[in-house]
Design goal:
- By secondary structure, the chain is mainly alpha-helical.
- It folds into three domains: about 120 residues, 3-Layer(aba) Sandwich (Rossmann fold); about 190 residues, Serine Threonine Protein Phosphatase 5, Tetratricopeptide repeat (Alpha Horseshoe), CATH 1.25.40; about 170 residues, Orthogonal Bundle (DNA Cyclobutane Dipyrimidine Photolyase, subunit A, domain 3), CATH 1.10.579.
- Helix content is about 45%, strand content about 5%.
- It has a five-stranded parallel beta sheet with strand order 3-2-1-4-5, with helices on both faces.
- A hairpin with a 2-residue loop joins β6 and β7.
- α10 packs antiparallel against α11.
- It is globular and about 80 Å long.
- The site of flavin-adenine dinucleotide (FAD) has 27 residues, from α9, α11, α13 and α15.
Length: about 500
Amino acid sequence: MKTLRLLLGDQLNLQHSWFKQKEENVLYAMFEMRQETDYAKHHIQKIVGFFVAMREMADTLEKNGHKVIYYKINDTSNKQDLGLNLTQLMLEFDITHFEYQAPDEYRLSSQLEKICKSLEITHEVFTTEHFLVSQDFLEKMFQGKKQVILESFYRTVRKQYGFLMEGSEPEGGKWNFDHDNRKKWNGKPEVPQNFPVHNEVSAVYEEIKTSACAFIGEINTKDFLWPINRSQSLTVLEFFCKVALPHFGSFQDAMDQKEPWLFHSRLSFALNTKMLHPKEVVEAAVKAYKKNPQAISLAQVEGFVRQIVGWREYMRGIYWWKMPEFAKLNYFGHERTLPKWFWTGETKMNCLSKSIKQSLEHAYAHHIQRLMVTGNFALLAGIHPDALDEWYLGIYIDAIEWVEITNTRGMSQFADGGIVGTKPYVSSANYIQKMGNYCSNCFYEYGKKTGEKACPFNSLYWRFYEINRPLLEKNPRIGMMYVTLNKMSDTNKKELFEQAEKYLSGIESL
Ligand SMILES: Cc1cc2nc3c(=O)[nH]c(=O)nc-3n(C[C@H](O)[C@H](O)[C@H](O)COP(=O)(O)OP(=O)(O)OC[C@H]3O[C@@H](n4cnc5c(N)ncnc54)[C@H](O)[C@@H]3O)c2cc1C
Ligand code: SF4
């Protein structure tokens, strides 16, 4: 039997049991394809990052004695389509059996199922062996439920793995240290310097340019800062645990206009491409904390563990529970197009300008910038969730649909009507001012609700609650906002809503 095994671009798990032994009759296939570069307009660092990491993986497999067929983007034999490439290889190498690892994206999962239906040879699907929780576990947790709350999911997985547990109780007697973890960063402590990964990626960049596929964003091809193989990914993990984890929790919600990374791990690309396993990431963080609890408090490490064990695995559960319907949800019926400045950062609103320009420069923004700046504005302005998904999917190096769409359409836009979160994440300028330093350099005044230079977030915020009253007023977590709104005088409300409408009608020039 001659077997063809497919490896997708986000299946770069060198620890997978497939690679435990060399098998004479197994051929691995990896393809750089236009079908993958063109389904959204991606950031150039995302395309380069994926291709370079795939090539590194293919090289390592070959060095370890495996047989690999690798199609580069401009290879003449590359049909640029998964089905066509597979069929071509099956004929060329007299393949009698096909195997693949279950994709994390619905799009690719459906495509592969369809391909397999048309095959005359046998096939088998394997797990990627990547996630902490299995598909069976997800089914037990999610199927038949009305809602699954992150907190109960997180606690179940933490107990199952014994992460930060003392018997059946959480270490420190509390599951959640969020309360200690919401600090503004005022320049101290110093943010980590000397990031340990620097790559030269000019050759791949030139090939992508030759292929003429469309892309957005900037790249420094002489100093590409994302890890491109397992060894570099482990280096980033070690760097994080040593220098950023001691302050991760405290400043995870902080924003700074000059410091894009603050104390964040920058591990999402290595995790989402599966170069790192979430278990080893959590274990490394817990080990660092146990070794030096004076430097790394429990609140810091719990904040980090919660992101990986809780949010990341939970979002995957939501995705497979609710797809494909999830991709069409639009609870508020939002229809507005995305302002053109989302693609350039050219807006007078400093928080948006800085967050967008940073995203174009680094293919990165941290969670609060994604949620409370770009996402917050889009929700208040009533942007169509399709346009938002396309933007988030394209611009971030870590954006793969299963984790992008659940965060964007679910957590950030509440387009799911409350599947992921219990209330919409919206705020006025107050939150952005409290958690960052954008407002001090802004054309607009964060303290002003109406009149010249009033911050758009303020009037849009109250307009959002007013127009969505029928959908939100009964939500117990929001009730207080309506108490405040109801207490406002009619004149105040009129001025506020007129201000909001004026800003929305001139949204392109905000
Ligand atoms: C609108 C929106 C879109 C997002 N799109 C993506 C996306 O496409 N891909 C993606 O990986 N993350 C996404 N996130 C989650 C989060 O913003 C990123 O995981 C994080 O910013 C990556 O940077 P980091 O590795 O430095 O993370 P850190 O802040 O250091 O966090 C550590 C790790 O925890 C995980 N994590 C943290 N928050 C989340 C979350 N909400 N959901 C899932 N995992 C989480 C990530 O794997 C991350 O690497 C999105 C969030 C929002 C609000
Ligand atoms: S004033 Fe408003 S628009 Fe300007 S930075 Fe602050 S929150 Fe953003």
